[in-house]
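Q: Predict the assembly, please.
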Amino acid sequence: MLSIKNLHVSINGKEILRGINLEVKPGEVHAIMGPNGTGKSTLASVIAGRDIYTIDEGDVLFKGKNLLEMPIEDRASEGIFLGFQYPVEIPGVSITNFMRTAVNEQRKYHGLDPIPANEFLAKMEEKKQMLEITAKLANRSVNEGFSGGEKKKNEIFQMAMLEPSLAILDETDSGLDIDALKIVANGVNKLRRPDNAFVVITHYQRLLDYIVPDIVHVLFDGRIVRSGGKELAFELEEKGYEWIKASLV
Amino acid sequence: MEKDPNNILEEVTQGDYKYGFYTDIEMDTAPVGLTEDTVRFISAKKNEPEWLLQYRLDAYHKWLEMTEPTWAHLLHPPISYQDIIFYAAPKKKKELSSLDEVDPELIATFNKLGISLEEQKKLSGVAVDAVIDSVSVKTTFSETLEKQGIIFCSFSEAVQKVPDLVKQYLGTVVPSDDNYFAALNSAVFSDGSFCYIPKGVRCPIELSTYFRINAANTGQFERTLIIGDENSYVSYMEGCTAPMRDENQLHAAIVEIVALKEAEVKYSTVQNWYPGNKKGEGGIYNFVTKRGICKGNNSKISWTQVETGSAITWKYPSVVLMGDNSVGEFYSVAVTNNYQQADTGSKMIHLGRNTKSTIISKGISAGFSNNSYRGLVKMTKRAENSRNFSQCDSLLLGDKCGAHTFPYIKTENKTSIVEHEATTSKISDDQLFYCNQRGISTESAIGLIVNGYAREVLKQLPMEFAVEAQKLLSISLEGSVG
Ligand SMILES: Nc1ncnc2c1ncn2[C@@H]1O[C@H](COP(=O)(O)OP(=O)(O)OP(=O)(O)O)[C@@H](O)[C@H]1O
Ligand SMILES: [Mg+2]
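A: Predicted assembly structure:
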């Protein structure tokens, strides 16, 4: 589904990603871990298409298409979703209006008519219940005045609404209390299907108790330096990144 | 891969004026230029009583003595008043009894605008007084209104039908020598709307009027007078778009509102005059004087405006709060794009005790435009325990446009409170990326963000208008991308 080959990315002349290789197949859950500032969010942003970065080398294919030449919104319509580490506020725009616009623009991309109002509202209702989101929150402006946890929950809600084939969740677990974490993980698990995939960026092994990954990667200094099973997360938690660093020299 | 975010904004904000088209209707015009004879010609054309001719002539002579104001943050070549045709009207046809009799070209024009009279009539229950150029072509629903004693007609008609009412109130809110453009209007005003709501009557429908400028080189000088008698209520709407045109067109309207004891008048407008092309050529010069007076105790006047058009906008809808406990409100969204210039705001003059005013102004600038808020809040000595709250926000799209705020506050008593808040913000790249990532194109994202930003004002508009206004906001910032 997603195929990244030898990806080198820099910003303002500073190289951040230094040869990333990553294969994600339908039905898989990948976890990416790694110290602060090693390029996890950068990787996620580059996949989503943020244009402040320079791609120095490498290829990114998504469902066989060259992702790097696709506008951001087309990538989204093709099925890429990014759960932001720091979701932005959009004052005055209700979540309902925002989601209806997003759903309809994606439908337009696929040559479909706008979603009928009743169908849309029913879907909103269903997903709200799944993620235990109160009606009040859904009527508020996108992320405006939301607590850190509410913002993250809202990201998952949007993911549920848009039903992407590849969801990249950038530290969605940070800021969530233990109950919210369970709800969010539960939501993700319910959305797992044989034809979609998840890339979960996290600092905490705890999340992986709830969203069980097929593969865990360690991103270090712009490179994936280790990949392995779920055990790798435990090992990291136990030994810390010093262990990785030591094994690299 | 790398793209200058300003370039994206530029592309997106370079929309062509979508409502630009031109209708050819036989004109009955005054000679070019302005002399005493022009004034007499207009008055005669309209079959006006002697007192009104004198009112016009008096204004004309005052105007001759006055000079164009220069204090606004606006730049334009000098207006050559002797090159303007001051009166143009569709040739007088026989009285119309149904829409079928209306000039088909006119109907087509309305259809292009998406405001077909037929639809308006059937679907929305809105009485429509359509003003093309200077003469009212069709008034609907007037019978329903008449039953309640409501008078809603063109200004010229009112002069014939209820001359005493017109005489009693004309120029009492905006004196003919109030300012340069008001004097000009008072001398040569063509037509407009007149509205009178009798004592104790709640007008059952939203009153709306559509104005359009339609003839080359024709100055437009609308004159509107709205009177809410004691304990009455009316919601009045005015909207306009204009055809594409090369040369600049002068537009100097006057709107006067009088609210007597316990009366409430809500005035909403969506203004979309031709703004000129992307290079800043052409477009309407819009110098408008709009003022209401809360004459009686407990009266209320509320202005809501959405301004997207005109090359130049000079407009300060104001309220004189004369009655005790009276309330004045001003809600405004002003969009400027390309080389448009807007100097707009409000004046709240507190004369009565316990009076309250609110100013919410949202400026949106894009392209190379300049958008200024200018406001005056005055608490006179007598206006004890009065309050004003002003919120003036500016949103910038791109880095070549300007936003300015000129708030003036004068307080002559110690018990009144005036609060002023101002913010300036930009649509951030992070916001655009966030929207794009959800599949929303940059163009739609800007529409969404701008409408969100203006929500506080848009929600003041009557429903039918709010939808139209939202579309207009997006359209006026939209480009040919996508
Ligand atoms: N716009 C930018 N300008 C300059 N440097 C940047 C920019 N964005 C990211 N960087 C740098 O790139 C590096 C990688 O950042 P990134 O956000 O990808 O890290 P991360 O792995 O997600 O870290 P964290 O775990 O703290 O979220 C950091 O050193 C960061 O300072
Ligand atoms: Mg990060």
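Residues A 11-12, 16, 34, 36-42, 52, 85 surround adenosine-5'-triphosphate (ligand 1) (CB under 6 Å). The mean pLDDT of chain A is 92.
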